[in-house]
Amino acid sequence: MSARIGVVTFPGSLDDGDAARGVRLAGGEAVRLWHADPDLHSVDAVILPGGFSYGDYLRGGAIARFAPVMESIAQAARDGMPVLGICNGFQILCEAHLLPGALTRNEHLHFRNRDQWLRIEAVQPVWTNAFAASQEVLIPVKHGEGRYVADQRTLEELEANGQVVARYINGNPNGSLNDIAAISNAAGNVVGIMPHPEHAVEALTGPSIDGLAFFTSVLKHLAGAGAQA
What we know:
By secondary structure, the chain is of the alpha/beta class. The protein has helices at 16-26, 68-78, 88-95, 152-160, 212-228; strands spanning 4-9, 29-34, 45-48, 83-86, 102-104, 112-120, 136-143, 147-149, 164-168, 180-184, 190-193. The protein has a nine-stranded mixed β-sheet with strand order 2-1-3-4-11-10-9-6-7, with helices on both faces. It has a two-stranded antiparallel sheet with strand order 5-8. Helix 1 crosses helix 5.
């Protein structure tokens, strides 16, 4: 039986369909979740997709964090459920304090839309177990508020604890501190990534299929957890 991966749709979500497709291509069952419905419908993991939730009024993710579904997701995340936030989803996770730091306007104040090289810095059990350590991957970015910032103590803790999941290489598209492209919480079950792995799952439409490994990783993790149960 395939793992059930919930994909949330907020008003203004753009990439929820793409994230659901990534789940299906990896072999999972995509379950569509609605922002106003707190019921997670017995999913095993959740993806917060990219887009402009609630129009990105105030700032990216600031309103979405108060959506009824986010109350359930926040509690499930604290209980260990895998959660992946992509682009706007990363912003939402920071606004909900499920991840430290914040995403701010790109340093150069321009929207960036390009294929971006990353290095996988942390091969973790939940979202990156299908990658090799220090693997370089090509995944698109498309954002105007993708600059990751945090105070120096937080940055030092992220680096020391292996919570920097991916880092920009061959150029930093937004000025993120320490070239950070993705981070996790201390437990490793919650990951936020600014590039879009769901746009790198098929050779026909993406610059690579490197992004598919994020989806296969969580399915492998859930299969292992099920076997142990």
